[in-house]
Amino acid sequence: MSHDNPTPLRVGAQGALNGWRVRIAGRVVMGMQAADGETYYWNEFNLVDGFGRSATLVFEAGEDGPEWKLFNSFEPLRPLTAGEAATKGVGDTVNLDGTPRRITLVDRSRVHHIEGTAPEGVEVGDIANYFNIDTGELMLVASWTGAEIEFYEGHDLPPARVAEAFGLPRGVLASSASRRPEPGESAGAPLVTKLVGIAFAAIMFFSIFSCGGREKRVTAPSAAPLAKQVAPALRLANGAQGTLARHTYTVASHAVIAVARVGRRHDRHEYAVVSDTREPALLIQGLNGGLQEWHLLQPAAHPSALATLTPFEAAARRKGAPVPLDGRTLRITDLFQSTVLSTDGVGASAVWPALQYGFVAHEAGEWLIARWTETGIRYHHGRAVPESEVFAALGPGPEKAR
After folding, report:
1. In the chain, what are the domain boundaries?
2. What is the pLDDT of residues 244-257, one digit of tens each?
């Protein structure tokens, strides 16, 4: 069989996944032996960044065309030992993430070829046992050798999103290796194999939006783009001042932000405001897309257990994931990409980077917004405020400016 790369992705190529800049350090050709004795092959791309962190992008040629999956390691809520995993078979139920699920595949994998640099500990000839749990929305994998066992969680990525991340034409990955390979050809398998030392935490959520839904693979021209909701023409004036939530605030600067999230796009107004005690805050109209929805949010520099969260790790958070905040647990309700369309006022460029990724978490009236670039994360938390109170305090239009 050939170990040639069946995709346009090349070792050394650089790209950006969810603001995380990566380089393809290596390609590993893996194989599994089918029941008929034939061996099927697939490719795993080793992604690394400038800080020593790594990820795995898995390619296989499926029945409906090329399939791409991105995986992250995770600690199960109810872990198995390697010995326990070895007793499991197809149809057995295990509970790794809090939900009982049935095993869909049990097999062994072997490393057949390495181009460039493989993940630490991976060598030609390595053999690992594994089982898969494929729910259609995500894939959970347990992989073990001897007494060592590791767990992974993966999601499909549309070929067009992978192409976009690495600067390739949108259709090129959708057409490559578009048929199911014959036995012995370089191909894929619905699994991720033993990759010792991976510290992957950069699921490209903007590609799949990590919202518990499965995106269609891109095998045909895309549908017409979603209509975008524009920001209201009426806005607060810079310099407007008034009392809101028991503090006097002054509007210092303003931005119009384009927000892309699963199934919808909208623009919104955001305001940097300063209190009478010189404390900064954000006043956002349309945090979740509602035109009459307002939130007053204060900076949260080190919100409890999130203090050590990196942009790399934040990108792995999914909708519904818990977020600890000051002794409480919020749940992620939305994930998004935001782009600045325009700004005005003092210090606006420092408040709103041109492109950010983020999530919104909510519980019992408390809101948290996390936004990051590849260099760091900013958190703001607070509560919703009625539109009537915002207009009474700061008023739309220039008539409230002081």
Report:
1. 14-208, 228-400
2. 999 999 999 999 99
